[in-house]
Amino acid sequence: MTQTKKRIAVYPGTFDPITLGHEDLVRRAAYLFDEVVVAVAGSTNKSTLFNLEERVALAQNLFASYDNVKVVGFSGLLMQFVQDQSAQVVIRGLRAASDFEYEFQLAGMNRKLYPKLETLFLTPSEEYMFVSSSLVREVAKLGGAVDQFVSKSVEDAIVKKLKESL
User: Fold this and answer.
1) Is the distance from CB of 84 to CB of 74 less than 8 angstroms?
2) Rounded Cα–Cα distance for residues 79 and 118 (Å)
3) Is 137 exposed, middle or buried (0-12, 13-18, 19+ CB in 10 A)?
4) pLDDT per residue over 96-124, tens digit each?
5) In the annotation, is 70 catalytic?
6) Is 22 a catalytic residue?
7) Which of 70, 95, 111, 161 is catalytic?
8) What does each C-alpha distance from 38 to 60, 75, 78, 103, 159 come to in angstroms?
9) pLDDT, tens digit, for every residue of 4-39?
10) Is 137 a catalytic residue?
11) Dihedral sign, Cα of residue 135, residue 140, residue 142, residue 143
12) Domains annotated on the chain, with CATH
């Protein structure tokens, strides 16, 4: 009897903070793949609210009940990480047409670096189409409520982090 190859997808991002839109994509990807690796990027040009360990912990907490989702922090080249995970697919979220050009270029570059890779674009559910981590951070820093954009545990972590920075 032949054994079928495990279908593994990597969903990379900074996840600073992880939003309900991110959660929506992970839930849907977990339905499509045997394993989903949420790859939290450590080395980034972005100035983050949470450090890598905090972002990994927040995501691990959110996906603890999923048997086929694991959360891993990484730094370096994404394609090397994808190969290390034995993944065949990278999941990218598209919120608006403005995301497409950048994501399309990235998918082409990634395929050039790792020809066996496929990129799967998923769009978030309609209610999360406009939600981005950077907008959530901005709203929170200006004192606005973010409960409709992030889970309760993430909201609590944001409030705590912002109080610490005062």
Assistant:
1) no
2) 11
3) buried
4) 777 788 888 989 898 898 898 999 999 99
5) no
6) yes
7) 95
8) 9, 13, 12, 18, 24
9) 789 999 999 999 999 999 999 999 999 999 999 999
10) no
11) positive
12) 8-165 (3.40.50.620)
